[in-house]
Amino acid sequence: EADDDPALPGMWVDLAEIYLEGPYPGTAGSHVEVDIDYEALGNSNPPVGGPHWGARCGETPAESPAFCGPAPWGIFQDEWDPETLVHNMEHGGVVLWYNTSDEDLIDEVKAIILARLDDNLLVMAPYSGMENETIAITSWSRIDKFPVDEYDAGRVERFIDVHARRFNPEGF
User: Fold this and answer.
1) Which of 5, 47, 124, 154 could form a disulfide with 38 if both were Cys (CB 3.0 to 4.6 A apart)?
2) 20 in a domain, yes or no?
3) Domain that holds residue 98
C-alpha cells in the first residue's frame, strides 16, 4: 500500500497530488509512449512512480525496443530508462539505482540484491541521471537517496524487506 506513514523507510512522494493536474492528469500509473521529465513535474530523482512505458522489454537495455517496461528482474551493468523502471515499481518491485565507480561498494550492494532476488522483485542498475557518488533505492511512492559515504547495508536491506511487493496494484 502506498501511504505516508513516517515509520516506513524512505521519504514518501505524493504521486496522486503530483499527477492530479499538468500534462498527465490522473496518469500516475498509466502507460505512455513519450519521455517523461519526472523531476520537472515534482517527482523525485530518480522517480518513484508516475506514467511509464509498457512495451515488452528484452533481456538487457540494448536488446529492448523503445518505450519498454517493465525491465526483467535482476542486476544490470547498463542503464535502463527511468520510464522502464517505474513500471517495475508499479508491479511491486524495488529498484536500486547507483551512480558511483566504487566497484567494491557496487559488489557489496550486488550481494544484498542477489541474496534477496529469488523472493523479491528487484532491479539494480546504474543511473547517471542523479548526482555522482549517490545511491537511491525506490519503490512506488518511496525513495531513500544518499551519498555513497552514508551507505549502510542494513538501510538497504530494511528498505527492500519493507517495500518489496508492498504496493502491488497489478498482483505481481
Assistant:
1) 47
2) yes
3) 11-163
Rounded to two decimals, what is the model's pTM? Answer: 0.93
| Residue bearing cell 517496461 | 69
Q: What is the dihedral of CA 103, 119, 32, 138, to 10 degrees?
A: -50
Counts for the chain of helices (H) and strands (E), in that order: 4, 6
Cβ atoms 12, 141 nearer than 8 A: yes
Question: Do residues 82 and 76 make contact, with C-beta atoms less than 8 angstroms apart?
Answer: no
Residues in the chain: 172
What pLDDT sits at residue 138? Answer: 98
Domain count, the chain: 1
Q: How far apart are CA 148 and CA 86, in angstroms?
A: 23
Distance of CA 138 to the CA centre of its chain: 4
Q: Could you tell me the CATH number of the domain that includes residue 111?
A: 3.40.30
